[in-house]
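Hi Q.,

Before the meeting this afternoon, I wanted you to have the S-adenosylmethionine prediction in hand. No need to reply - just skim if you have a minute. The sequence and ligand are here:
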Amino acid sequence: MLYVVGIGPGGEKYFTRESEEVLKSVDLIVCYSGYRKYIERFRKEVYTTGMKKEIERVRYALKEAEKRDVALVSSGDATIYGMASLVYELAEKDNCKVPIKVVSGVTAASISSAILGAPLNHDFVVVSLSDLLTPLEVILRRVRCALEGDFVLVLYNPLSRSRREPFLRTVEIIREYGEKRGVDYIVGIVKNGGREGEEYRITTIGDICSNLDKYMKFIDMNTTVIVGNSNTKVICNKMVTPRGYLDKYKV
Ligand SMILES: C[S@@+](CC[C@H](N)C(=O)[O-])C[C@H]1O[C@@H](n2cnc3c(N)ncnc32)[C@H](O)[C@@H]1O
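Predicted structure with the ligand bound:
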């Protein structure tokens, strides 16, 4: 059996009970080398590979799962920019008949939303700014569509040392939309949410554009950025997107 297990952001308290039970029960855990520290406490045989070795990792997990119970670990939720889709695609391609079960986990959007307050309390869109597997023009079109629809926008993979252009162009598009609508969008930034080194900032797109260097030093690949909609507010120093109750019930 192959379990594809989301372990949340890393901190022990964010593992679901189901993921704990599965990781305790399996014979082998397969994961990205950077996540070894999160699963060592299960004292299992561990197989790791580094960045960009996802295909090798998944094939190994599928092969081993023909003989024993294996957990392939993904951070956050395995079905959100995680390993789950690749598992199904390779199983089909390699004609592998191993039973597969996905175990859901707490995704970065969810942990970040709670840290910031309640920014995702209305319709939202999630876009990854990584152009490794998706052309930049497709990413930017999706960002524009989200802004056009006045969705709250969650940005995964916002910025890395070698990938600055997607972030710079996205910030510029958000600023332009804000200017057109007369809104300085509230922006929440969460780094290392739910794990050691957790930090967050709540600011506006105008402030980010005026202090780009400062924010580009802060934001990294362990960061999620949430851009509010035109109705998002700062309440009690937290970022809040109203659901509409006060307007509806005239409170
Ligand atoms: C390849 S995606 C994986 C997402 C993961 N499957 C999930 O559901 O959270 C990696 C991106 O998730 C976000 N992320 C992952 N862990 C995070 C954390 N602890 N705090 C903030 N953002 C995080 C960052 O945007 C990072 O670049």
